[in-house]
Specification:
4 helices, 4-stranded mixed sheet, single chain, 114 residues, elongated, alpha+beta, 4 strands
């Protein structure tokens, strides 16, 4: 899934910081960097189908790694830790599309290098 358009970049943040450097302290507090419900539903609309397909092809092992059920695995695992089925540890559980998966498969690759 490509990075959302228009791109969220820091042009406005940098301009605001240049104008008022005291904003840096405010921006360092995640509690004040709010998301709207509309933002979350838009994100789910963008990634939901792909995330469900990814979850169907993977399980979670006791080390919280994504276990590929297909060999070779057709998925780009992005920032997720993953192993093949023979290398998995302990009983496997369903991989659920939750906040952790969204962060490691979508948010981190869009905003950082893994």
């Amino acid at each position: 899934v490509p990075y959302p358009a228009p791109c969220f970049d820091d042009v406005f943040v940098n301009a605001a910081l240049a104008h008022d450097p005291s904003l840096q302290e405010v921006l360092s507090d995640p509690a004040v960097c709010a998301l709207r419900v509309q933002d979350l539903t838009g994100l789910l609309d963008r990634v939901g189908k792909e995330m469900a397909a990814y979850c169907k092809d993977h399980r979670l092992d006791q080390c919280f790694r994504h276990v590929c059920l297909r060999a070779p695995c057709p998925w780009d695992h992005k920032c997720c830790r993953f192993v093949t089925l023979p290398d998995s540890k302990g009983p496997l559980q369903a991989l659920v599309g939750n906040m952790h998966l969204i962060v490691f498969r979508y948010i981190k690759p869009w905003t950082l290098s893994c």
